[in-house]
What does this fold into?
Amino acid sequence: MSLWEKYAAVRAHSVLICSKLQKEDYVVQPVADVSPPKWHLGHTTWFFETFILIPNAVAYQPFNADYNYVFNSYYENIGARVIRTDRGNLSRPTVDDVFKYRAYVDGAIEKFLSCACSEEVKELLELGLNHEQQHQELLWYDIKYILGHNPLFPAYATENIENQLKNAGQGWLSFEEGVYEVGYNGTDFHFDNELGRHKVYIQNFSISASLVTNGEYLQFILAGAYQDFNLWHAEGWDWVKNNSVTAPMYWYEIEGTWHRYSLSGLMLLDPDAPVSNISYYEAAAYAQWKGMRLPTEFEWEVASAQLEWGTLWEWTESAYLPYPGFSKAAGALGEYNGKFMVNQKVLRGASIATPKDHSRNTYRNFFHPNLRWMFSGIRLSK
It folds into this structure.
């Protein structure tokens, strides 16, 4: 597959994800963490325009000078931008305008790639494609949040990625104490936060071959766990009280029967499916209730070759910190990962929303402990 063909395939997939939406769905921002689908489509296009075309394509003219302000996300080096919480106020540019923007930039990229380009530019383009794949996963999260917080609980579609939400594996896997190597080792694409590869000492541990299920988590709820401060971190207990949390996101008890909103609409809770849309606080409290713990990210990586993963991102007990020798790139691209290495927990694996060629056992996802709108789950360790 040529670089252009790969580019075209990735770009087409973003549009495919949005293809079941109505135009009104493209502009909604219910909470700060959710960006309107229209914004994702514009921002990923802005990335290619800003980092590939403007600096490298001869005589390239930006589609609209205002779009740098509208679609910049967090790059301080690039200049002023619409603050994150105001993305839902962007009734203009319209959805049609954003699709015209995508077509304009895609045409310019196709022309640009018809000529030879440097290895440095190819690496930037590869980063841009992986960046768009990250936003494809965020699109799934945000679309589900938008539809799942609509009082009518509309379905995205009958056939969707949540039909793949199944559990696998049984029993426990045990590993001997010792020195192990972790971190990326290879020549294919990887993010800077996966470097550098280094040695860690790990004690004896066991890790569950399966994820915690809805049925298992329901027992946690019925045991009064959301009313028992002993199970929670102090910050987690504050989160429970301040937000009146009594169950995972998208769970609803209706006339004594538990339901869960999925992209197929409001459904009866499947007790055998893995529990998803879980915060770190909830994952840690459940582990405490079971007399166990969450794995560290290094334990997870050591065990990963024997695990079935890719269904849900799995919370670990590890803080998101730099590996030995980590260094940020110069300029705006140095803002990609490094500046977020504070107050976040690492999640490992992948999810049903992760593009198939966008996962590695060294991939370090990261979120704040209170967040749960992503496809996150629980794997226990002891």
